[in-house]
Amino acid sequence: MVLFRALGWLLLALAIAAVVNDCLGWWSEGVFRLLSLGDLWTRVHLGSLQSTQAFLSSHARGLLWFWFLMPILRLPALPVLTMAGVILLWIGRRSGTRAEGGFVIGSKPPRRRRGRSGIT
Length: 120
Hints:
Order of helices and strands: HHHHH
């Protein structure tokens, strides 16, 4: 469950980075364009995108690349990353048996106080 929450927070951080990139592009160019997942993957690591395309085109006759992955890579990154992050946070939520904690830090078990022994 901790892994789902960590990935959810990571995806939300990437969504914030995408919206900052979109807003900076809007401010500098005067045109608001949403960054697509393919553009994001290109900026992060172009070699892995090219090797994935080559592998899927050669081993799956290109059907998996053109009919499945290309439409996904054309989607805007901001809503996709936001929805995926929220879904992962929802999946990794803590059960209701524990005490409710803070939004960022989480819950901690109650502290036990030590009794004074031997002193009368």
